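Justification of resources, computational component.

The compute hours requested in this renewal are based largely on the per-chain cost of generating structure records like the one below. Each record pairs the submitted sequence with a full structure-token output. That output is archived, and it is also reused by downstream analysis tasks.
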Amino acid sequence: MKAVIVAVVIALATSGCVTVSGARGIHQDRNLLTREEFSQLGYRTAYDAVQLLRPFWLISRGPTEYLPSPKDQPQVFVNDMWEGGLDVLQTIRLDGVREIRFLPIGETVMRFGAGYPSGGIHVRIGGN
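The structure output for this chain reads:
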């Protein structure tokens, strides 16, 4: 009986540790989109890939001031440089993108400063 309980506890504890994307068997990190994930799907822009594979990245985190502001949405960084709002993703062609990473608010503040209260989306372009 103890062996059955231990087996059930282990199964429950490890069941949510790794996610796999469909039949492709691609490991997913919910805050990372890799070239492996989006290269064979025929998307043209970074926005297309994010919208279809990680749509929750595009959700506004709510107003940070009394009046709505463009920074109520995650901001886009390309190779460690701030580029603007989510519309920037529509201008980035996927053929040169290595990875796209969602940065939670705390990580965005630590890397880029306090001016980004809704987090960020960091795009790495170039290299292998």
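The chain has one domain: 31-125. Strands lie at 19-21, 26-28, 32-34, 75-78, 81-84, 97-103, 120-125.
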